[in-house]
Design goal:
Blueprint lengths: L2 H18 L21 H10 L1 H13 L28 H14 L2 H9 L3 H13 L5 H14 L1
Helix pairs in contact: 1-3, 2-3, 4-5, 5-7, 6-7
């Protein structure tokens, strides 16, 4: 890093500030593209300025000094909030789930029963299984659901 390069960079930064009508150095970052879209962060600009002044000077010239009107870039695209939630799942209270299980048992719909029981969390299946044992009722569907939940958690 030569003294001449440092001076040229300092002059280029001052010209960039004037051209973009920015008050602080970090505001010119909005005109410099980042590696993943959007503009670069001001910490990245500071590192670039200190470690690679030639590259920083080239970016300033290409995106701010050479164009007639520099274009301010949008921020880096972010993932929308709540992305982990699946749109095809319905949240139901336990009472409704228990009612659906009861209706499925009464109608003898084993496929629906196995789907609903398999989708329940392990601790809820445990509670239901213990409750059925206390009531002196043998429930094979609950036992199968418990086995599947335990295997799924391993």
């Amino acid at each position: 890093m030569t003294k001449n390069t440092q001076q040229n960079l300092k002059i280029a930064i001052e010209k960039s500030l004037d051209k973009t009508q920015a008050k602080k150095e970090k505001e010119i970052c909005r005109y410099l593209p980042g590696p993943r879209g959007g503009y670069i962060h001001h910490f990245t600009f500071k590192k670039l300025k200190e470690k690679e002044p030639e590259k920083c000077l080239a970016l300033l010239e290409e995106f701010i000094l050479n164009p007639a009107k520099p274009r301010e870039l949008d921020p880096t695209p972010r993932a929308p909030r709540g992305l982990n939630r699946s749109n095809n799942q319905i949240k139901l209270p336990n009472e409704m789930v228990n009612r659906i299980i009861q209706i499925a048992r009464e109608s003898g719909d084993d496929s629906l029963l196995s789907k609903i029981l398999a989708a329940r969390p392990l601790n809820q299946v445990k509670r239901d299984l213990i409750r059925s044992i206390r009531d002196n009722k043998a429930n094979n569907e609950l036992w199968d659901a418990y086995k599947e939940a335990v295997l799924a958690n391993e």
